[in-house]
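Amino acids appear as letters; backbone shape is given numerically. Here is one record.
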Amino acid sequence: MEEAEISGPQACSKGLRHGFAVHCLVNEIPTTLIKKWLGHSSLSTTSIYLDVANQEEQRIAKKMWS
């Protein structure tokens, strides 16, 4: 983590996994593919990330209009 200059709460395997999932969704990777990559047995587990990705997308859109 130090070498990649990642610090704070995201500086753990769970944080990296979460960041990866959100990054995939923001970049329009199909949820079914993300489910497969993360090894989730249920699509409902993967869709939890949709709320976070949607918030990120809204934050980016707000920057465009400010």
The two ends are 33 Å apart (CA to CA). Helices lie at 13-26, 31-38, 43-46, 48-65.
